[in-house]
């Protein structure tokens, strides 16, 4: 007999991933040039707090220091059942990437006006993963152009749907 009730907020996908948080503002403010999947070095109370679904990606960014990538300003609140072993919520966390990826990122960030921003935090097979985006900032006119293009595409799709259904409007 199946229980009736609320649907789980963070349902596990077919590939074993469970999305915990997404940075929706990032795609609005930045043009994402490339995406990288990386692991996060976490403490025990941090992963427990993540599993509770408490995480905030606002104002988070990544930097490359001494050949390593670090995530800064990611807010993971203290674990509710933790004691003196709790972590500080906005501590700097190390990201795990391959050397080739780090070298590629270092060259691009150093050369141009590009930055590293977290796009999504998720669990894959029990491990916390982060989708990191190499991004370039958008100007206001670029944002308006994207909104205009999205509205035009929506109108075209709507009109095609009406024509297929035979509705004259």
UniProtKB/TrEMBL annotation:
<dbReference type="GO" id="GO:0003723">
    <property type="term" value="F:RNA binding"/>
</dbReference>
<comment type="similarity">
    <text>Belongs to the SmpB family.</text>
</comment>
<dbReference type="InterPro" id="IPR000037">
    <property type="entry name" value="SsrA-bd_prot"/>
</dbReference>
<dbReference type="GO" id="GO:0005829">
    <property type="term" value="C:cytosol"/>
</dbReference>
<dbReference type="InterPro" id="IPR023620">
    <property type="entry name" value="SmpB"/>
</dbReference>
<dbReference type="InterPro" id="IPR020081">
    <property type="entry name" value="SsrA-bd_prot_CS"/>
</dbReference>
<comment type="function">
    <text>Required for rescue of stalled ribosomes mediated by trans-translation. Binds to transfer-messenger RNA (tmRNA), required for stable association of tmRNA with ribosomes. tmRNA and SmpB together mimic tRNA shape, replacing the anticodon stem-loop with SmpB. tmRNA is encoded by the ssrA gene; the 2 termini fold to resemble tRNA(Ala) and it encodes a 'tag peptide', a short internal open reading frame. During trans-translation Ala-aminoacylated tmRNA acts like a tRNA, entering the A-site of stalled ribosomes, displacing the stalled mRNA.</text>
</comment>
<dbReference type="GO" id="GO:0070929">
    <property type="term" value="P:trans-translation"/>
</dbReference>
<keyword id="KW-0963">Cytoplasm</keyword>
<dbReference type="Pfam" id="PF01668">
    <property type="entry name" value="SmpB"/>
</dbReference>
<dbReference type="GO" id="GO:0070930">
    <property type="term" value="P:trans-translation-dependent protein tagging"/>
</dbReference>
<protein>
    <recommendedName>
        <fullName>SsrA-binding protein</fullName>
    </recommendedName>
</protein>
<keyword id="KW-0694">RNA-binding</keyword>
